[in-house]
Fold this sequence. Notes:
Blueprint: E1 2-14, H1 15-19, H2 24-27, E2 38-50, E3 53-57, H3 67-71, H4 81-87, E4 97-99, H5 105-108, E5 112-114, E6 121-123, E7 129-132, H6 134-141, H7 153-161, E8 165-167, E9 175-176, E10 184-188, E11 195-202, E12 205-209, H8 232-249, E13 252-254, E14 263-269, E15 272-279, H9 281-284
Parallel strand pairs: 3-4, 4-7, 7-8, 12-13
Antiparallel strand pairs: 1-2, 2-3, 5-6, 9-10, 10-11, 11-12, 13-14, 14-15
Amino acid sequence: MKLYPIQAGNFKLDGGAMFGVVPKSLWQRTNPADSNNMIDLAARCLLIEDGNRLTLIDNGMGNKQSEKFFSYYYLWGDDNLDSSLRKHGFSRDDITDVFLTHLHFDHCGGSIQWNKDRSGYEPAFKNARFWSNADHWSWATKPNKREKASFLKENILPIEESGQLNFITLPETDILTGCALGFDVFFANGHTDKQMIPMVRYQDMTICFVADLLPTAGHLPLPYVMGYDTRPLLTIDEKERFLQMAADKNFYLFLEHDAQTEIITVKHTERGVRLKDRYACHELFN
């Protein structure tokens, strides 16, 4: 097995929204804001090469939305999905599986692109199976009013229409051992219903793609919960359980949205689970 970080782009969001009720005087210590109160974020995806299977976890915003849409998110930097794939010797057509942690636009927008004459949409990974789960798919295709702006039908419905949609089996507990793609999955419901956190066994490590359960290293304290979460109290409980497990088992946490830090480990302290070490992907993936 080989692992590759894939940079699908960079953007900015309001720092207050990213940290909910936590005062700016606290969160700006780890996530400094610009003059518009915006903080830097990444869309860092993970590519897993395992035999003949090439699995991409999440794929960023994509590029099919309007200029007005993207202006809300202050895109910055030169990173994009295609150039990052090429850097590692791959293209979209090589991808066999696309695993979507959840269907918010900044995680799944790259799944679908315009067709050649821009008369409609088509999968951006023509040879891939797309993986969600039945409960989250229902949640996203019949969105509540709070999340409706994050679940864009043009990102979601064409996946089903293509015939390439597949569902991960839902476990009776919050952890699925050995999903169809070969890794374990932790299910979390606080951010959105049935968000999936892949837990990949790599060499002697467990690499956890923590998605929006832990957006940045600055979100480690339990009350540091995004304003975007639909059930913030549940997020706190789920984050506590996951971080306790991560500290106990020395998991390596792959951060999708942290623009500065790629991977962290955590440890138990008197103040709860806190940062242990930071890593760049190239230090661990070889």
